[in-house]
Amino acid sequence: MGVNGFINFNKPAGMTSHDVVAQVRRALKIKQVGHAGTLDPFARGVLPLAVGKATRLLEYLTDDKEYIATVRFGAATTTYDLEGEVTSISDRTVSEDEIRAALKDFEGEILQTPPMYSAIKVGGKKLYEYARKGQTVEVEPRRVTVHEIEFLPPDRIRIACSKGTYIRSIAHDLGQKLGVGAHLTNLVRTKSGPFKLEDTGEKLINPLDVLTLQQHEITDAELDKVRHGQPLTPLLNNGYKEDEHVILSYNNNVAAMAAAKEDKLLVKKVLLSLILLVMPVSFTPAADCEFACVKPYDMCNKAGRMVTSATGVNLATQAVAGKIAKRLVKDAATSGAVKVKLKSFSPMDLAAGRFKSFELTGKDFSAEGIYLTALNIKTLCNFNYAVPTSDSVVFKEDFPLAFNVALSEDDLNKTMHSNGYDKLIESLNSTGVFKILDTQVKIKNDRFVFITKTVVPFVKRPQEMVFSSDLTVKNGDIKFTDTKIINSAMTLDLSKAAFALNLLNPLNYSLRILEDKNAKMKLEEVHIEDNKIFAQGTIVIQKG
Fold first, then answer.
1. pTM higher than 0.85 for the full model?
2. Is 40 a catalytic residue?
3. For 242-254, how does the pLDDT look when each residue is reduced to its tens digit (9 = 90+)?
């Protein structure tokens, strides 16, 4: 499921905060990277980074900062730092006592005007865009808090402050107060929330090690509730304050964030991928999954044989990987991006169909009227034997794989307008009880919403019925559970409605893309996260 966690990064001078994020994205090959608290390019020091699902936890970090600022007294600049043009010069020397006395006015809660060269927006444009054109605009002062400020002779100041405090503005305003002008020549952030300069490095940090909120360790039974966004009722007298943020932890990882409300914990953000960091259920078969990996045999044993990685650029890989891909996704996708990667033992083994691993990744593609946002299929054994034939591929050993599918509501709505899905509706309409004219799907508040337009006996106009359900896996299919009818004007037997909905379930129809007459598919888990539906399980293509 990818990499998740925090990094306490020591940003060097000369890089923007965005440069750092881009660098980490490239290094980790992951798009989900964010930072807490921008540092100016000339500044260096602590820049907390969040990777993967941990980006959703940035708002829960404590946001107090600490800096060591080097100030040059006697000159003011346009940017309030050494990169701007000098606007005034004074040859008067200020004493240490004068500086300490002036700093007292900067302690506590103060009103501060951000510098014109900053990224704050006014009228839809950033302030530095106005400044670069020589334009000035009125900027409202902002209330910030300086917890501690002390002078460190001869020219440094230590500042502990709240989020949003501009150290450049403190230096500039201090110079104005002393009547000599001043600007920053160096700035080091020594602390940001729980992250300290002496602890910086490139290792991944478990969010539980740095988040200072209260925690509630959830049980296995509660984990399923959390997955579906259902509230928890922990023991009474737990000491939580009303609306207090609480971490729901599981197996020493963040499962979700919740808010205390009366005697309940209301789930606000589900972060199951953080659990998957140490519990890789995406590509780990269930304990009762019936397959066994075989040991490598009949291998090329020439001296000096090298392990190779093939990615679809040579004929041997195209022959094996391409035909496996067709078996797995119905003669491959008709649109979208599908990538196949094979790791082999040697070129000779690969040509014979013996290889180490196979992985298929698809993004925004369709096949036979079925649409998916993402699909990942990966082998579970370290030895695989599949020999290509003229029109297919023969598996010399069982071929076990793990799959992970992501679908959006748009995917499902397009799938439900395919010819194949129409046949499901026709079969249900043939009962004569009612006639379904149209179906639609929405995902709202981590619930699956199914909308049908139906002709009901003795009612002239078509009726729209809206159902809201949780999703669960039962007997290898995705089932609607806890079904509720939203448009309460309708009178309906929900037990019968749920049965009918499960017959029309577009999720099970979409997973047909993975079916094969010689394959056993086992669906293991389904959940909704970030307005997408994720399903995972295993496929075993039997040899022969």
1. no
2. yes
3. 889 999 998 888 8
